[in-house]
Amino acid sequence: MKVQVLAPVYVEQLPDQLVEGRFYICEEFALTAHKCCCGCGEDVYNKLSPAKWQLTKNPDGTVSLYPSVGNWKYACQSHYVIRNNRVIEAGPMGAKAIEAVKQQDLRARDAFIAQMNAHADELAQQPVGWWATLRALGLQLLHRVRSLWPW
Ligand SMILES: [Zn+2]
Questions:
Q1: Rounded to the nearest whole angstrom, what is the distance from the C-alpha of residue 109 to the centroid of ligand 1?
Q2: 126/103 Cα distance (integer angstroms)
């Protein structure tokens, strides 16, 4: 790898021209960008989300990106891991491995969507159930108080 260390740079907006060796982090748009570490000059963008890439900010200021960056859509087909600012070559990706990652991405996304839907269902049901129970209790209580009322 030509670039062996990336320096994290926090930006509000990604610059038009990326500088090699910098790892731009745009937290507002959950996006990172860097020049491909092989030195080919391609811009690499990684969307941060539980279904895509996860960025770890270490206490010492270094960052790690998970999973690996596989630039199979570029001619270089480079594949590396960014851990604690260091670029670790992860070996060439064969067609099979690329397909496996693509499938894994899809599965992760589906699982994420299913999880969000389940959570949404839970949220949708919870307040209704809670409110209905409380109201039923309140009515019961009111009824009981009325029956105890002396006049
Ligand atoms: Zn490259």
A1: 26
A2: 34
Over residues 97-108, the mean pLDDT reads 78
Q: Are 63 and 23 in contact (CB under 8 A)?
A: yes
Residue among 29, 79, 20 at smallest CA distance from 55: 29
| Amino acid at site 54 | Q
Q: Ligand 1 mean position to 71 CA, how many Å? A: 7
Per-chain residues with Cβ under 5 A from ion ligand 1? 36, 38, 40, 76, 78
Q: Report the side by side order of strands in the sheet with 54-57.
A: 54-57, 63-70, 79-83, 86-89
In a domain? residue 1: no
Say if residue 31 is in the same domain as residue 41: yes
Determine the distance separating the centroid of ligand 1 and the alpha carbon of 65, expressed in angstroms: 17
* Distance from Cα 45 to the centre of ligand 1, integer Å: 12
Task: Say yes or no: 65 and 115 in one domain.
Answer: no
Give the global pTM. Answer: 0.66
pLDDT in tens, 53-82: 999 999 999 999 999 998 988 999 899 999
The string of pLDDT tens digits covering residues 9-18 is 999 999 999 9
